[in-house]
Specification:
ConA-like_dom_sf, 14 strands, SPRY_dom, single chain, hydrolase, alpha+beta, 6 helices, nuclease, four-stranded antiparallel β-sheet, about 30% strand
Length: about 240
Amino acid sequence: MNAFETELGVLTEIAKAVDEMGWLLPTDVQSEAIPVILDGADVLMIILRFGSIPEVILDGADVLMAVETGSGKTGAFCLPILQIVHETLRDIQEGNKGPRARKQASASNELKPLQLNFHDRSHGLAIDTDGLACQSQDQRIWNGARSTKGVKGKGRYYFEITQTDPNGIARVGWSVPIAIIDLGTDNQGFVYGGTGKKSFAKQFDGYDETFGVNDTIGSFIDLDRMKIRFFKNASFKYHLFI
């Protein structure tokens, strides 16, 4: 047994292989990265050739490590990937009843927060760290985002947004996963806009009154009856799309 197995949780077979390669002790980046990757974390690793901070970090990407060339990053990535692939294949052979499958099933059943999706947004949209507030960084174009959860099948679903920017114009609504972020400009999304219009496939028609700062817009979808409704400040607006 070596440190890769005893300290980082690497399988005995992999630990034996790296021992034969002369890897007696993990590097700093391996010590930090391998356990969290094995635990299911998503990893983005940046190679620093110069002293500057990469733009991807400044742009809000999730970053686990920023490391220099030669620091052992290949092992930090590849060793846990090998182990995850091995355990996944083993779970499949066992009828998805292995320890990793049970762990993933348990994680999938946990209640995950509903937020704006940092990874499914326009480049020009800034999202607050709690995922509950956003602002366009370019007033010349529309910027938007989807949520971290979607709905399908049957049932009724509802969410609300409140406009806090006195100078902004917002659109709110529903779309399918393949819709473009510029909501309402293709035939995959249904929108109620701050200018008082509904939109679908670039067709902007008069709908109801406008909305703006401090207004709360509720968006309701009935998948059983295939209807979409909107509410402004708790006041029901007639069926938008049927």
